[in-house]
């Protein structure tokens, strides 16, 4: 690169050399934003009823509070590296955190549904860059032999958010009011912002690489790629988030969103592969380790989000647990993950990542198989047993998978890779949630029809059950005529409940089977310990 090019005006000024900051201080500093972003993706769900009453929204309209946040988050993730090169990695993180906090404050002050949706979009724009930037900073901060521990710490922030979000949201809503699920971010975020400003500094090699790349990028800004990506991902997320509510392709809007997403994303891929300086570095997928690790991560988050949706619904709708009981029953999975993840971070340099991920896949599937035997008589300890298996499974999978996926990526391209990695996890989670939510309803309808076929008036067992139901109503003080009329409806309710149990059993089993499909992909998870991204590599200079 020429001296003139390096002297060109840059988006951020060169920083003076600094003494290395303690890696644990860096970790704590950048974890605040990621943890808050992960929590806010799920914390709103428990407050939707209260928010709906406050802003006067319908059930269909209120879902836009979550949809708007997710769409905005997904849009920013793949552009994290592009933005970081323009303004600097640390500055991007701090600006994103400020936007997130500003959006949080505005959400708490929202006066209508659509003002709240708009402010959630602002909040999502801020949250989108936090996760990929933290992941890259940790990879650049920790030495090569501690990359597994770096990703273990990142895993704690990413995985604890969805686990603690609903519980924290419930406590705030029950003991204060729904705006506090947003206001709680402000003091925590302010502390995080101060710590990032004080303790996080870009490594000199990364700063120089970003300066060089920014010069070329500013001359060839890929506006077309950015536009196609924005349209494609927005349409895709709308399709996934709203498809089940709108009966999928029975809705013209959903059909149109699917077509727009397909056309825009295909055009985006073609554009990025031919652009002189692409906004998103899709060439990283030529690396089979990165490609397979990212794909497995997407599948893992599809199963994680599906389980985070299915199990609470089963406990509350079928077993009659209240929100507090449901939250407490889910805690063992989180506690086990917290115990396993640091251990796996240390084992990463000793045991093959493929073995760790393979054992994790089997452990998750064992938990899913146990869930597939849940009945109306299932108790808390049976649920805890299955969650322990799944906690071990996710803990064993996430750390080595994330570490290996980025193992052969150059330090200067880590933010490109983490942006894509985070994007695929987010989209994978949305896909898993959409598929399992749809299959759950359809499976319940099929099961209800199957059970109903055996309850005809010519079936003596059905008549006997109907008579027992009628006598049970009479024993509760209901007069005979009313009991006779109500018995068929009561029996129909029992059938519907049993059908839902069968549907949940099928979904839990399907999740385990789908997860086992990951095992063949482990062949591609080969890592050269000496060539991991934390190891020193020659700088890549752009020819001008």
Describe this structure in words.
This protein is mostly helical and 544 residues long. It folds into 4 domains: 22-208, Growth Hormone, Chain: A; 222-276, no CATH class; 282-453 and 508-535, Up-down Bundle (Growth Hormone, Chain: A); 454-503. The protein has helices spanning 3-6, 23-43, 48-55, 59-62, 64-76, 80-87, 89-108, 113-128, 130-141, 147-175, 180-183, 185-199, 204-219, 223-242, 252-274, 288-318, 323-347, 353-371, 380-405, 414-452, 460-475, 480-516. α18 runs antiparallel to α19. Mean pLDDT is 80; it is low at 1-16 and 533-544. It is globular, with a radius of gyration of 25 Å.
Q: Which CATH top level class of the largest domain fits? A: Mainly Alpha
For the sheet with most strands, the description reads: none
Taking all Cα atoms into account, the compactness measure Rg is: 25 Å
Relative strand content:
under 5%
State the helicity in percent bands: over 70%
Question: Total strand count, please?
Answer: 0
Low-confidence stretches: 1-16, 533-544
Amino- and carboxy-terminal Cα gap: 6 Å
CATH homologous superfamily annotation of the largest domain: MFS general substrate transporter like domains
Shape designation: globular
Total count of domains: 4
Order of helices and strands: HHHHHHHHHHHHHHHHHHHHHH
- Overall average pLDDT: 80
CATH architecture grouping of the largest domain: Up-down Bundle
How are the elements arranged and paired?
Elements: H1 3-6, H2 23-43, H3 48-55, H4 59-62, H5 64-76, H6 80-87, H7 89-108, H8 113-128, H9 130-141, H10 147-175, H11 180-183, H12 185-199, H13 204-219, H14 223-242, H15 252-274, H16 288-318, H17 323-347, H18 353-371, H19 380-405, H20 414-452, H21 460-475, H22 480-516
Helix pairs in contact: 2-9, 2-10, 2-12, 5-8, 5-14, 6-7, 6-13, 6-20, 7-8, 7-9, 7-12, 9-10, 9-20, 10-17, 10-19, 14-15, 16-19, 16-20, 16-22, 17-19, 18-19, 18-22, 20-22, 21-22
